[in-house]
Specification:
With 93 residues, the chain is of the alpha+beta class. Helices cover 33% and strands 20% of the residues. The chain is built from three helices and three strands, in the order ββαααβ. It has helices at 28-34, 36-44, 61-75, and strands at residues 7-14, 19-22, 83-89. It has a three-stranded antiparallel beta sheet with strand order 2-1-3, covered by helices on one side. A hairpin with a 4-residue loop joins strand 1 (7-14) and strand 2.
């Protein structure tokens, strides 16, 4: 039995419209590439007062979710962006 990397489903909840979007099952490397625009947009606003620094290449799922939430807050007009969460995907064969 070969070991495969874990896959996660990342959900994005938009606060104002209460809309929830889910990604397909992704590994951490795929998720960093998939959400690279959000991470870049948040990093571009990190120099403003009160905004947090963004790691564009997180290595753990916990770090990825924290950076996505911080990037979303940095890029939002009112400082309150979308909420990201992750669930582990279990493939049933």
């Amino acid at each position: 039995m070969n070991k495969t990397s874990k896959r996660y489903i990342i959900t994005n909840t938009q606060l104002m419209s209460n809309r929830c979007n889910s990604s397909r099952p992704l590994t951490i490397a795929e998720a960093v590439e998939y959400f690279s625009y959000t991470l870049e947009a948040g990093a571009s606003w990190s120099h403003e007062q009160g905004n947090k620094k963004i790691n564009r290449k997180p290595t753990t799922i916990k770090s990825l979710i924290a950076n996505l939430n911080n990037a979303s807050n940095n890029a939002a007009r009112n400082g309150c962006g979308s909420i990201y969460a992750a669930k582990e995907f279990i493939d049933v064969v």
